[in-house]
Design brief:
The protein is of the alpha+beta class and 381 residues long. The chain is built from 7 helices and 18 strands. The protein folds into 3 domains: 6-150, Nucleoside Triphosphate Pyrophosphohydrolase (Alpha-Beta Complex); 170-297, Nucleoside Triphosphate Pyrophosphohydrolase (Alpha-Beta Complex); 307-381, Winged helix-like DNA-binding domain superfamily/Winged helix DNA-binding domain (Arc Repressor Mutant, subunit A), CATH 1.10.10. Strands 1, 2, 3, 4, 5, 6, 7, 8 and 9 form a 9-stranded mixed beta sheet that branches. Strands 10, 11, 12, 13, 14, 15 and 16 form a 7-stranded mixed beta sheet that branches. 26% of the residues are buried.
C-alpha cells in the first residue's frame, strides 16, 4: 500500500477544551481522534486543514489577506499554527502526519451549535482537555506536547491557562546572627512536625498568596521565635529539586543581624523549641540548611568588609573595643588595636556621644554611635 501524508487539527477552545471525532472506518474504527484527513496530491497543507474543518466538523473557514482564519458563525478571527510533523508510526497506512492548531476563544455551547456530523465520523464532542478518552493513533501525544510546550500563540487575560505549568511551593527561611558570649551565634528552631520532626532548622515557612516575601520572613520569624524589628536582607534563592520531601519547594533565604541583649525567645506555631547555637558547633539540621548557613557566613564576611552592617550587632551606643570584637569574632582573627581604630576614625563614620561606659571595674571607655548619613558601600577593611 502506498503511504500517504495526512494532517490532524487540534481545535483548541479557550485553552481548556478540544474537539474530537469518533472514527467510522479502519484503522481505529470506533475510536475518538483529532479531526484529520489525508493530504491530496498537490494540495497545500493549509488548504487540507480548511478541508478538515469543513468535511469533519461542518465549519466553513477561509483565510483573509493577513493570514487569519475566519470561521463562519464566529465573531473573532483566529490563527492557524503549524505545530510539528510526526512519523505516523501507529498508522498502518504509513506516511507522516503534520499537526496544526487553531485556538478559538468562544462559548463552548456556541461552538457545539455549529458542529455537524461530517464524513467518516459517527460522533463529535468537545472534551475537557484534562479528561480525554482513549484516542486513536498517537493523538494523545500530539495533544500533550501541544499543551506542555508547543503552543505558539500569545495568551490573553481570558484565555490564559493557569493549569499549564506545574506550581512549586515557595517558602522563606531566615538566618539570624548575633554575638553572644564572645561567639558568633545563629538562631535555630526545633521542628514540631514532619518532615524532620524534632530536628533543628532555620526558622521559616510558606508564604501566603497575597504576602510580600519580606513580610512573610518577618511574620515567620516573629511566629516561631518571637524575634521582631530586625535588619533583614535577602540572601539567596535555594531551589534544588528534592530539597524538601513534601513537594517541589523553592525557598528565598534572608539573613538578619541582631543585638540579642534583652531579646526574649519564644517558640510557637511550628517550633517546639528555639535556641542560640555557635555557628561552628551546630547540631544536625533539616533540609539543606547547612548549605544556607555556609553561604550566609560568606555573605556576612563580605558585608562586613564593604558595608556598615556590623553595627547591627551592636547596641546603639558602643565602645571601640566592642566594635573590634565583632570583626574579630566574625573573621576569626585578631586585628591590631591601633591600626583598627585608626582605620575607623579615617572612615569618618563614628560619632562621639560624650558618654562613657558605666558599671565597669576598669577605666570607663568612650561610647560612640554610627553617623546617620553614610553611603551604602564603604570599604571598612
Amino acid at each position: 500500500m502506498e503511504s500517504v501524508n495526512s494532517v490532524d487539527c487540534i481545535v483548541d477552545i479557550n485553552n481548556t477544551h478540544v474537539i474530537l471525532v469518533k472514527r467510522d472506518k479502519e484503522p481505529f474504527s470506533g475510536y475518538w481522534a483529532l479531526p484529520g484527513c489525508q493530504q491530496k496530491q498537490y494540495e497545500e497543507l493549509q488548504n487540507a486543514v480548511l478541508r478538515v474543518l469543513k468535511e469533519r466538523l461542518n465549519l466553513n473557514a477561509e483565510f483573509d489577506e493577513a493570514g487569519k482564519i475566519s470561521i463562519e458563525g464566529l465573531k473573532h478571527k483566529t490563527t492557524l499554527h503549524q505545530i510539528k510533523t510526526y512519523d505516523s508510526g501507529t498508522d498502518p497506512r504509513g506516511g507522516n502526519t503534520t499537526v496544526f492548531a487553531i485556538h478559538i476563544f468562544a462559548d463552548v455551547e456556541k461552538i457545539k451549535g455549529l458542529l455537524k456530523i461530517g464524513e467518516y465520523v459517527t460522533e463529535q464532542t468537545i472534551f475537557d482537555r484534562h479528561k480525554l478518552p482513549k484516542l486513536a493513533f498517537e493523538h494523545h501525544k500530539f495533544i500533550d506536547e501541544y499543551y506542555k510546550q508547543l503552543k505558539p500563540y500569545d495568551s490573553t487575560k481570558e484565555s490564559y491557562d493557569i493549569t499549564k505549568y506545574e506550581k512549586p511551593s515557595v517558602s522563606v527561611d531566615i538566618v539570624v546572627f548575633s554575638i553572644r558570649d564572645n561567639n558568633l551565634k545563629i538562631l535555630l528552631i526545633k521542628r514540631k512536625s514532619w518532615p524532620f520532626r524534632d530536628t533543628w532548622a532555620i526558622p521559616g515557612g510558606f508564604i501566603n498568596m497575597k504576602e510580600d516575601l519580606k513580610d512573610a520572613a518577618k511574620r515567620e520569624l516573629m511566629e516561631e521565635t518571637n524575634v521582631k524589628d530586625v535588619y533583614l536582607e535577602q540572601l539567596y534563592t535555594f531551589g534544588k529539586p528534592g530539597r524538601d520531601p513534601r513537594t517541589r519547594v523553592i525557598t528565598v533565604a534572608y539573613f538578619a543581624l541582631i543585638n540579642s541583649d534583652g531579646v526574649e525567645l519564644k517558640a510557637t506555631t511550628d517550633a517546639s523549641e528555639v535556641k542560640w547555637f555557635t555557628v561552628n558547633d551546630l547540631p544536625k539540621l533539616a533540609f539543606d540548611h547547612n548549605e544556607m548557613i555556609d553561604y550566609s557566613k560568606k555573605r556576612l564576611r563580605w558585608k562586613l568588609e564593604y558595608t556598615t552592617i556590623a553595627f547591627q550587632l551592636l547596641p546603639k551606643k558602643f565602645t571601640l573595643t566592642q566594635l573590634q570584637n565583632i570583626y574579630e569574632i566574625v573573621f576569626d582573627k585578631s586585628f591590631d588595636k591601633r591600626n583598627f581604630r585608626k582605620k575607623m576614625f579615617a572612615l569618618n563614620i563614628l560619632k562621639e556621644t560624650n558618654e562613657m561606659l558605666s558599671d565597669v571595674a576598669h577605666r570607663p571607655a568612650k561610647l560612640y554611635t554610627l553617623k546617620t548619613k553614610i553611603g551604602e558601600m564603604i570599604e571598612i577593611l
